[in-house]
Amino acid sequence: MSIRRWLWLALFLHSPAFAQAFPERPVHIIVPFGPGGLGDITMRTLGERLAPLLGKPVLIENQPGAGGVTAALNVKKARPDGHTLLCIVNGTAIAVSLFKQLPYDPQKDFTPVSLVTYFDLVILSSATSKHATLKDLVAAAKASPGKLNFATINPGSTQNLSAQLFKSVAGIDVQVVPFRTSADAAAAVIAGNADAVFESYAAMKGLIAGGKLRPLAVTAPKSFGYLPNVPTAAEAGVPGYVVTGWNALAAPAGTPPEVVAILNRHINTVISQPEFKAKLLQLGTLAYAGKPEELAGQLDKDIAKWRAVIERAGIQKQ
Question: Does 90 share its domain with 142?
């Protein structure tokens, strides 16, 4: 491309006329997970309601694998015109400290568009366990240092790091045991081979309803309302322990602010719809949008938070 043509394109992309024409074609949301997960369901639910507002289809593309790197690089290289967006999550912040050479910079290579949801985790024991409350679990861990096992999915995941953070805040010595899947981690607790599991409500909902697992506490600063009789960790005896995950949307760096503003406005409209909020709450997620700068601040805060957890836990970089 000639310099003159490149300059013309750059001026057009940042012109009010371009923003007024947006979107000109379907908007693609790249999700770094397979179908059926919390991030995927959230973005599909959003996309269904976003399409009529934009006047163009919103297409969800699942690009799982490589710790989200593949999806991120594809969006990083996309034309910065708002038609290709990336689903970023709190795991994006974790990746900064977890990978030795992350081939993208989430703070520099992407433009924040909007938060979409917050979600917390649930700390659960077996329904037949003697640990009937979080206080029971902590007391048992203090009485028998190094003897209790906490089940999570793979090292470096939000669930795994949340268990590591819990050890630090609660002042206990337990083994955090990673499993391949959420189902495997839950099965270990049900079988009595682990004392607690840290997972999302969406992943454990069926086992809770079936009476296999007992929720001891949620990790949000205050209850989202999907388990109204379950206390927060702070209320249950571990003050200072808070973990909230999030799903959000970002665009390639250089996306015109006018386009970001259009996307953000329509996402906020969807978030305000009662049926959207209710549907996501059934999955244990709290719909929340806000301004792009809120997403930028959340990302900055979580990068610092999880870097400290990873260093304290001695987790080797991948």
Answer: no
Q: Give the gyration radius of the chain's Cα atoms.
A: 21
Residue pLDDT, tens place only, 241-299: 999 999 999 999 999 999 999 999 999 999 999 999 999 999 999 999 999 999 999 99
Domain boundary among 218, 236, 257: 218
Q: For residues 117 and 288, give the distance between their C-alpha atoms in angstroms, rounded to a whole number.
A: 5
Q: Please list, in sequence order, all residues whose beta carbon lies within 8 angstroms of the beta carbon of residue 220, skipping any fewer than 6 positions away.
A: 118, 120, 232, 242, 243, 244
Q: Domain containing 193: what range?
A: 125-218
| Three-class SS state of 246 | strand
In tens, the pLDDT along 83-136 reads 999 999 999 999 999 888 899 999 999 999 999 999 999 999 999 999 999 999
204-215 pLDDT tens trace: 999 999 999 999
* SS3 of residue 249 by DSSP: strand
- Please indicate, yes or no, whether residues 98 and 133 belong to a single structural domain of this protein: no
- Crossing angle between the packed helical segments 292-313 and 158-170, to the nearest 10 degrees: 70
Q: Are 293 and 261 in contact (CB under 8 A)?
A: no
- Assess contact for 248 and 112: CB atoms under 8 A: yes
Identify whether residues 113 and 154 lie together within a single domain. Answer: no
Cα 250 to Cα 78: distance, rounded to the nearest angstrom: 12
> Where do we find the tokens 């924040």?
112
Reported pTM:
0.85
